[in-house]
Amino acid sequence: MTSQDKTINREKTIVTTGIIGIVANIFLASFKALIGVAAHSTAMVLDAVNNFSDVLSSVVAIIGTKIASKKPDKKHPLGHGRVEYLAQMIIAALIIYAGLTAMWESIKKIINPVEPEHSAASLAIISVAIVVKIFLGIFVRKQGNKVKSDLLISSGTDALFDAILSTAVLISAVILLVFKFNIEAYVSVVISLFILKAGFEIIFEAVDDMLGHRVEVEYTKKVKDCVNSFDEVHGAYDIVLHNYGPERYLGSVHIEVDDTMTAVEIDALTRSISEKVYKETGIIYSNNSSDEHLMKMRNEITELVVDHKHILQLHGFYVDEVKKRIIFDVVVDFDEQDREGLIAHIIGDVKQALPGYDVQVTIDSDISDQ
User: Fold this and answer.
1) How far apart are alpha carbons 58 and 137 in whole angstroms?
2) Rounded mean pLDDT of 192-199?
3) d(Cα 198, Cα 211) in Å, to the nearest integer?
């Protein structure tokens, strides 16, 4: 599966999960609001408001994911992945707003209490809501872990919190019916505090991701093990990973090799390492100039490649005559909509001009001004 396919599948999973969350929360919020108003239950109405905020959160998650999945452009050569962190902060702001509203309404009910009128129907709806929220929370978190989406993980965690809070509403209703003691307004205060806590935690997490934090040890170990798997490498040091959104890293690493290796051998090694690291981790981490035949080949290929519209530059040209492999990098203009199609066309042209060679082309990001 290519990197593009993984991105498409990730986006599809997040959007589908978000839609499921929207439908479920609209259903729950509507019933809770109706029963809450009919029973004069502040806690249930606030619980319904919290569900409506979850609907907005799912909408933001879908929109944020769509924007984050946009192709790189001139202003954003490394993509739009960090938009997901901004979407997290918007979701957190919605949650905090819901928490502050809940807190204010709860305090008013403590000052001017109104006794709710619960029935068997209202208790049954709360019970169903708890079960639905538990299953929804587990499902959304599982999908979030599957595609490594903090947006979904946060949404799933929020759903599980909702189940706990709905349980508190249920308990307060049972206490009122059995013991004739109204604690609902105070339970509402507790609900609002939980909502606020969840909102601030999501904000802190998003800010932490935007500022940049130490990458998980398991992840850097995976990169190091991948690099060290080559016999020519005696050590990998100074691993640096730059985050450009969830699961989007641009990295560099220093390697230790024998001082007897030639520049040609080192170039071939580093290309093999880059290819393997990219395939196994998704991280994106030289030049035959002494051979007249290879220089002629390079000039021929350069003419073929730069003749294509939207190709800005060709570099990193390398030919492995033993393995019959031609490798080079191209810088593609962001006006090109079908990058994969363009590269496939270039590879076809080079193979037609130089049959018998395996051709590998890497797209470089147009980071600097041309």
Assistant:
1) 13
2) 80
3) 20
Round to whole Å and give the CA distance between 107 and 191: 12
Tell me how far apart the alpha carbons of residues 254 and 185 are, in angstroms, rounded to a whole number.
61
Query: Quick check: 94 pLDDT over 70?
Result: yes
Contact predicate 280/219, CB 8 Å: no
Q: How many CB atoms lie within 10 A of CB 122?
A: 23
- Radius of gyration of the chain measured on its C-alpha atoms: 28
DSSP β-bridge partners for residue 256: 235
Residue type for position 324: K
Please state at what angle helix 42-68 crosses helix 150-179, rounded to 10 degrees.
170
Q: Are 331 and 312 in contact (CB under 8 A)?
A: yes
Which residues is 235 bridged to in the sheet?
A: 256
Cβ atoms within 10 Å, residue 80: 21
List pLDDT tens digits, range 278-316.
777 665 554 455 556 666 777 788 878 877 777 877 776
Which of 73-87, 198-212, 256-270 has the weakest average pLDDT? 73-87
Distance CA 200, CA 145 (A): 21
pTM for the model stands at 0.57
- The whole-chain average pLDDT of the chain stands at 76
SS3 of the chain: CCHHHHHHHHHHHHHHHHHHHHHHHHHHHHHHHHHHHHCCCHHHHHHHHHHHHHHHHHHHHHHHHHHHCCCCCCCCCCCCCCHHHHHHHHHHHHHHHHHHHHHHHHHHHHHCCCCCCCCHHHHHHHHHHHHHHHHHHHHHHHHHHHHCCHHHHHHHHHHHHHHHHHHHHHHHHHHHHHHCCCCHHHHHHHHHHHHHHHHHHHHHHHHHHHHCCCCCHHHHHHHHHHHHCCCCCCEEEEEEEEECCCCCEEEEEEEECCCCCCHHHHHHHHHHHHHHHHHHHCCECCCCCCCHHHHHHHHHHHHHHHCCCCEEEEEEEEEECCCCEEEEEEEECCCCCCHHHHHHHHHHHHHHHCCCCEEEEEEECCCCCC
